[in-house]
Amino acid sequence: MECLLGVFLSMLTFVNFSKCSIPSLRKHDSPFKKNTILFGRNVSCSPDFEKGMFPFKTYTCADIRVDGLRLAYGYYDGMGVSERCQETGGKHEFAELCRRLLFHMEGDVPLHSVYVPKASCEKLAEPRVILTRTEKGYKWKDMGHGNGYVLKLQCSIKQRAGL
Predict the structure, then answer these.
(1) What are the pLDDT digits (tens) for 13-31?
(2) pTM of the full predicted structure?
(3) % of the chain beyond a pLDDT of 70
(4) Exposure winner among 16, 114, 122, 151, fewest CB in 10 A?
(5) What is the structure's pLDDT at 9?
(6) CB atoms within 10 A of CB 161
(7) What is the C-alpha to C-alpha distance for residues 73 and 151, in angstroms, rounded to an integer?
């Protein structure tokens, strides 16, 4: 009540609002499980990462790997900012990967967004892997060494962070 009165009085004179607390509509992201089996392979996520603030409930998979291999990353041909990062042709299924990881955390929830905040187009000497869609569903495809890999994947669900 003190805050509401302060808002009214602020129209008339200066009022100190330092004692009023306004709840944040943003919330820190949470880590995914350390290990999740998806399409017959182990997707691992590190729980150690710098937390962000999001308006929707968000999970983060830092240092993402599939059976110890980096997840390949790249742009659609001719669309990227780097010519080095086009081996995948942009055909990775990050949305489905998020849906499946989220299922193991929240059950069947609607996906709001997928974000790759940390990726590299540098050359990687080790093999990589990519999730692809086939006529029969989804499968992992092994790729050799090359340019482009994901370091962090974030997935948000359609639920406000403050709820």
Answers:
(1) 444 445 555 556 889 999 9
(2) 0.79
(3) 78
(4) 16
(5) 37
(6) 18
(7) 9
Question: What is the residue type of 12?
Answer: L
According to the model, what pLDDT value does residue 158 have? Answer: 83
Task: Give the Å distances, CA to CA, from 123 to 23, 43, 88, 131, 163.
Answer: 45, 22, 13, 19, 42
Cα distance from N-terminal residue to C-terminal residue, the chain: 22
In single-letter form, the type of residue at position 121 comes to C
Range 109-113 contact pairs with CB under 8 angstroms and sequence separation of 24 or more:
109/157, 109/158, 109/159, 110/157, 110/158, 111/155, 111/156, 111/157, 111/158, 112/56, 112/156, 112/157, 112/158, 113/56, 113/155, 113/156
For 161, list phi and psi in degrees, rounded to 5: -60, -35
Q: How far apart are CA 6 and CA 15, in angstroms?
A: 6
Query: What secondary structure, in 3-state letters, does 84-119 show?
Result: CCCCCCCCCCHHHHHHHHHHHHHCCCCEEEEEEEEE
DSSP H or E stretch at residue 54: strand 53-54
The secondary structure of residue 137, as a DSSP letter, is E
pLDDT for 76 equals 63
User: Cβ of 122: how many Cβ atoms within 10 Å?
Assistant: 11
